[in-house]
């Protein structure tokens, strides 16, 4: 909201989002993505089957290697920033110098965020989730404060926001150090590529990096093609993507984070029955939360965007452009969120090759659909291509997953999906009627629509005898409590 209000959705924000995407790309590859996928199962195995000092030694080795690699990449990134920007956004011809400068300023963010992601992985493997989950809030607070307290001192105010990103990355690292020390961790500088744990992580990480690189190629494809469209297309995709990440983060990422740590521990203990139950539990919760979220964002997308973003530099045309992207992204919320849960199952089994293969198919699908849909749907076609490729990736992974873990009670999941969809459509109709008939302030219209929709959805869940929500929450709480013991 603050970025939209201060900078709008034009050339300046396009330059910032291009620059911000580059260190985030490496964060996904070497931070919370591939490294976590490779590190957590191995680290969990050390915690379960070896002494704690061996686990902490492994953690130190990984931290030091990550720092060394990320520092080298950052230096190279700053030097070759002009070429990186041209590669990422070849159609971006205006404000290129600003995009390059912002890239150079924010590249060190990669060191900080990769370190923060690794510390989060260590804490999660130790069954500590709260501080790590709250750490990203500090990045947001830092970015908001930088707009008001740092940006005014710069001739190009967006540079203040870039510095806020760096400060936020530092805070994300700092806040996780104390709980890590309380777990018994002590930092030591040591490097060894011959350590058996490092070799295991390396063997798992190489295909995981490639798999996540393929996933990130989808994002790069969208931004690159959007750079050839009208001014603000990149920003519209960014703002819309942020909105769909609210339900994805609330349900998909949170469930994926907890379930990955749980399933890694269950695989280490060879408790495959509990692992299957954890997976089914997660999928059922995703069905009941993401389907209503999709319908809600489709129906209330434009008023929500207007309420959150449309002021000062963010115009009505920006709202319309963002809503087009939001509509097509919202269709894939279940697929996006589910990938955050089912992909870690393969990683828990130390299988990083299967997601790599399915990701390759998805990226080819995304590229083909993007080129096909771009002429008619513009940036909306790019969003739709991303949604369809993610859905295809989900379907293929589910086929392979059933071969790995056995039956996932498909009949029950399908029945639950149909009942949830019907309940969500009734909720959506309710929201549509209210948003078009309640005449007061926009805040009041949106809030009444949302709360009425939740009420109607809850009633429908009762009428359709969807009782899983209460029992699922209780089961999840039981799982977490048992792990803490």
The gist of it:
The protein is mostly helical. Helices cover 84% and strands 0% of the residues.
Keyword list:
mainly alpha
Describe the structure.
With 485 residues, the chain is mostly helical. The chain has a domain at 1-228. Helices cover 84% and strands 0% of the residues. Helix 2 (11-30) packs antiparallel against helix 10 and helix 10 runs antiparallel to helix 16 (379-405). The longest helix has 38 residues, at 272-309. The model has no long low-confidence stretch (mean pLDDT 83).
> Cα-atom Rg, whole angstroms?
22 Å
Low-confidence stretches: none
N-end to C-end Cα span: 41 Å
What letter string, H or E per element, gives the SSE order? HHHHHHHHHHHHHHHHHHH
How many strands? Answer: 0
The main β sheet shows up as: none
Mean pLDDT over the full residue set: 83
Gross geometry? globular
Helix-strand category = mainly alpha
Please tally the helical runs, counting DSSP H or I stretches of 4 or more residues: 19
Q: What's the topology here?
A:
Elements: H1 2-7, H2 11-30, H3 34-49, H4 52-79, H5 81-88, H6 96-106, H7 109-125, H8 130-149, H9 158-182, H10 196-226, H11 233-268, H12 272-309, H13 316-330, H14 333-348, H15 353-377, H16 379-405, H17 410-437, H18 442-463, H19 468-484
Helix pairs in contact: 2-6, 2-7, 2-10, 2-11, 3-4, 3-7, 3-10, 3-11, 4-7, 5-6, 7-9, 8-9, 10-15, 10-16, 11-12, 11-13, 11-14, 12-13, 12-14, 12-17, 12-18, 12-19, 13-16, 14-16, 15-16, 17-18
